[in-house]
Design brief:
42% of the residues lie in helices and 23% in strands. The chain has five helices and five strands, in the order E-H-E-H-E-H-E-H-E-H. It has helices at residues 14-28, 41-46, 66-78, 96-101, 115-133, and strands at 2-8, 33-38, 53-62, 83-88, 104-106. Strands 2-1-4-3-5 form a five-stranded parallel beta sheet. Helix 1 runs parallel beside helix 5 and helix 3 (66-78) crosses helix 5 (115-133). The longest helix has 19 residues, at 115-133.
Length: 141
């Protein structure tokens, strides 16, 4: 299964770039991973491949424990869909039309995060979820 991370905006802070690069490298050892940066939400919507499952990061979404996220990721991997697209919107979130297409609305927290930090958290949590599925020692219960 391919992972596609759709994001509005580019990473500018070196510390965020470094953290994201580390988790991208770790994830790419387990999945084909592509990160698509777009300047706005409309451009992002055009980048969504057909037949991919879509998870949208949204404050109104469901919160998961790391174990629950691992189970959801495992179900996505077992589906007939060719890939999983995760969307991190810009400062104004994602429009309702995009959220309505989502197979899953995922909230990282009740807190609001800047999109660059959300990107780092999503990459780390995807790596953690895959580590759980592989019984890797990265995640400690």
């Amino acid at each position: 299964m391919k992972l596609l991370l759709l994001t509005v905006g580019k990473l500018r802070d070196p510390w965020v770039q470094s953290g994201c690069a580390e988790y991208e490298k770790r994830l790419r050892a387990r999945f084909p991973l592509e990160i698509v940066e777009a300047k706005d939400q409309a451009a992002l919507q055009r980048k969504l491949p057909p037949r991919f499952a879509l998870w949208v990061l949204d404050e109104r979404g469901q919160q998961f424990s790391s174990l629950e996220l691992a189970q959801k990721l495992d179900l996505a991997k077992q589906s007939a869909m060719p890939g999983l697209a995760l969307c991190i919107g810009g400062a104004d979130g994602t429009p309702p039309s995009f959220r309505d297409q989502a197979h899953c609305l995922w909230s990282l927290s009740k807190l609001t995060f800047p999109h660059r930090l959300a990107r780092l958290l999503v990459l780390e949590q995807l790596y953690r979820a895959q580590s759980i599925l592989e019984n890797s020692p990265y995640h400690r219960s």
